[in-house]
Amino acid sequence: MAQIWALLILEMADTPVLPFDMEAYAASVKEYVVDLEEYVGTKTAPVKRSNEDSPLNLSPLHEAADSFIENAAEFHTWDRIWSEVVYGGGGFESNVMAIKRMSHNTRMANFETHLLDVDGGVSTLQSLFPFPYPQAMLTPSLPPSLPFSLYSTNHPTQKPRTNNKKLPNRTQYKHIIFAPQAWSGYDAAFFPAIRDAVDDGDWALAQEQVRKVAGILRHAAWKLNH
After folding, report:
1. With helix as H, strand as E and coil as C, how does 177-221 read?
2. What's the chain's Rg over C-alpha atoms?
3. Which of 6, 84, 149, 184 lies 20 to 30 Å from 160 when distance is taken between CA atoms?
């Protein structure tokens, strides 16, 4: 295993653009959402992908996965542009292209970090608005007069703010997509916070987790290109 990691490090160290396929990742996430929908469908409550009232609405998660697919495609467009400019120019890379390439690699490397539910989105808000703001803006129940809602998935520049940070009852896990199943240390579970709530029959918590996970995923996808 140590040899494998050493070879991977050497390979990536000699690769100007990190060889991670975000488009394949996005396609897999979309499949995970479909798998989750089928899993929830085996439970007692029906699942709907519309705005109609239902015990669980997964449409925000589908929309977030679609946003990831679109942003991943845009992200890798730059890879092809860089290859054409640099390799087409005899391997010469200008300072401007080098800076853009480093930024590109950094955004790719930070993607998994942006998928961690570590602060409920407060740091994202503070980075966007570095000035004093009312405490009401840091809570899920925002007054209608505010121009946006951190509890909505309609604003990819912000992570959603909820009181339930990390994975409820298993706070050692922070990734919104991957974690072991609650009752098995070996089987993987996609979107574990949502699955745990569904398994417990807590549909209100499940819907809250759907909104939060979708918001974090949309934010992470948006950050790929910004």
Report:
1. CEEECCCCCCCEEECHHHHHHHHCCCHHHHHHHHHHHHHHHHHHH
2. 20
3. 184
175 forms beta bridges with 116
Going by C-alpha positions, the residue among 42, 60, 40 that lies closest to residue 50 is 60
Q: How far is CA 125 from CA 122, 128, 156, 159, 195, in A?
A: 5, 5, 12, 8, 28
Distance of CA 74 to CAs 20, 28, 45, 89, 104, Å? 14, 17, 37, 23, 12
Amino acid 53: pLDDT = 53
pLDDT bracket for residue 119 (50, 70, 90): low
Render 140-191 in DSSP notation, one character per residue.
SS--TTSS--TT-SS-TTS----S--SSTT-TT--BSSEEE-TT-SSSEEES
Between CA 54 and CA 139 the distance in angstroms is 25
- Nearest C-alpha neighbor of 210 from the set 191, 223, 226: 191
Q: What is the model's pLDDT at position 125?
A: 41
Name the helix (H) or strand (E) containing 38. helix 22-41
Q: Which residues of 58-85 are buried (b: 16+ CB within 10 A; e: fewer)?
A: bbbbbbbbbbbbebbeebbebbeebeee
pLDDT digits (tens, 9 = 90+) for 20-41: 999 999 999 999 999 999 988 8
**CA pair distance 174, 193, nearest whole angstrom:** 10
Contact 150, 158 (CB under 8 A): yes
pTM here? 0.76
At 194-225, the pLDDT tens digits run 998 888 888 899 999 999 999 999 999 999 99
